[in-house]
Task: structure prediction
Amino acid sequence: MSKKLTLNIDDELINFAHSYSQQNGLSISKLFEQYLNRLRSTDQNQELNSKTTTLYGLFQDSPIPDKKLLRTKFHEKDSH
Result:
């Protein structure tokens, strides 16, 4: 279901939106809808997988270790 939305936007940005929408053959409403959908999908994809979450902050108080140590720590955490 579509509803109307009123926005207060700077005149220069409105002019850009009109120009951009004409060049791309899309309404400003459609452009805004696509933009919000992209933001929503990007935000949802920001969640870390469970292995990464487990490792998050592991080396917070020390320098970043070499790859070999990272692999060792990763497999230690993964097995617990």
